[in-house]
């Protein structure tokens, strides 16, 4: 199972919205994933347990995991393409 970490400034509002959109998109593709939310500053301590990090804010620290910028999932501009990118990532891992 693919584990996705969704991070935003406070780990609550925007990450909840993005996490729900990711879960819905993957469910439509019959892909089971574990999606967890956190604060941006928690990424370094949690990243080892996840396959993909999706951020709603700017994140510049280097970690050894793929990071996808999730801002399109908040604004709606480029949302479909961003969800396709996440779906393809999960499909490649399964």
UniProtKB/TrEMBL annotation:
Keywords: Transferase. InterPro entries: PTS_EIIB-like_sf, PTS_EIIB_2, PTS_EIIB_2/3. Residues 1-94 form the PTS EIIB type-2 domain. One of its GO terms (molecular function) is protein-N(PI)-phosphohistidine-sugar phosphotransferase activity. It comes from the Bacteria. CDD domains: PTS_IIB_galactitol. One of its GO terms (biological process) is phosphoenolpyruvate-dependent sugar phosphotransferase system. The keyword Transmembrane does not apply. This is PTS galactitol transporter subunit IIB. It comes from Anaerococcus lactolyticus S7-1-13.
